[in-house]
Amino acid sequence: MNRRDFGKLALASLPASTLSAKPNSKFGGVQIGAITYCFRSLPSSAPELLKYCTDLGISAVELMGDAAENFAGAPATRPPAFGGGRRELTPEQRATLQKLADERKAWRLSVPMQKYKDLRKMYNDAGVSIEIVKLSLDDKMSNEEYDYVFNVAHALGSHSVTMELPKDEKLTQRIGDFAAKHKIYAGYHNHTQVNASSWDRALAQSKYNSINLDCGHFTTAINGSPIPFIKANASRITSFHLKDRKFQTEGGDNLPWGKGSTPIKDVLQLMKKEKYKWPANVELEYAIGEGTTVMAEMKKCLDFCKEALA
């Protein structure tokens, strides 16, 4: 038997799923994904993040904006470490920060969208969809930069841009107007500063303003289950972050899944029952102890979701 025949025999002996395997993290009709922030302690270029996802079988992501922009060739914009413990920056330090911001703006307004299309193709060819991109918008950015952010989302094939929930109603109105212009959702993420009515004003301003619900943070914030809120706002939710936190009255700690107060299993079963189509993204935030790894803990979270949706 020559090497070619041996190779054919070896391939024939493998299961078909091994030969053509692409990641698939849709369980029971529910798309489980990950926010790439989970891998923050590891090298985090866009190709490296893709490999972590394919190794874990993750087929959908919320991609952090830095990884996308760095892939497209963004200039370095991390400010230098200004020491001395000063509360106020010197004029020179402020000038340095402004120079970095100006460089980033100039780059954003000149970078070809083809670079983001190439990134999308790389992920899609590997079986991973970039459902969401996390890129923030603020009141200091120009209209051209707003268009840039939504154009990036479109080029990546994302249905939503995520950012923290602003307090400024003028800002959510402006973001909502641009989201409607581009027909891509702005998903507002929460920490523990919210209650059940925190999104009301933004949702009333534009049908493209939406909720990126962090179920763990929300559980801690209200000291209760997020399920009534989910049922009441299902038509305006565009994505979840999944983590397990204790109630605020119990300390609010981030814990390995199944040990906190967040009813992750019940949330996932509700998604399955109601056929909600938004992605539920794993966000690994609990402390990684000795004797384990980020990848091992991510697998535990994914297995938790799979079992909950079986």
What's the total number of strands?
A: 9
Runs in which pLDDT lies below 50 for 5 or more consecutive residues are: 1-19
SSE run: HHEEHEHHHEHEHEHEHHEHEH
Helix content: 40-55%
Shape verdict: globular
The N- and C-terminal alpha carbons lie at a distance of 45 Å
Rg computed from alpha carbons, rounded to a whole number of angstroms: 21 Å
What does this structure look like?
This protein is α/β, with parallel strands linked by helices and 310 residues long. It has a single domain, classed as Alpha-Beta Barrel (TIM Barrel), CATH 3.20.20.150. The chain contains 13 helices and nine strands. The chain has an eight-stranded parallel beta barrel, surrounded by seven helices. α7 links the parallel β4 and β5. α7 crosses α8. The radius of gyration is 21 Å and the shape is globular.
Short description:
With 310 residues, this protein is an alpha/beta fold. It contains 13 helices and 9 strands. The N and C termini lie far apart (45 Å).
Provide tags for this entry:
disordered N terminus, 310 residues, alpha/beta
Topology:
Elements: H1 3-12, H2 16-19, E1 26-27, E2 30-35, H3 46-56, E3 60-64, H4 65-71, H5 91-108, H6 114-125, E4 129-134, H7 143-156, E5 160-164, H8 169-182, E6 185-189, H9 200-205, E7 209-214, H10 215-222, H11 227-232, E8 237-242, H12 264-274, E9 280-282, H13 294-308
Parallel strand pairs: 2-3, 2-9, 3-4, 4-5, 5-6, 6-7, 7-8, 8-9
Antiparallel strand pairs: 1-2
Helix pairs in contact: 7-8
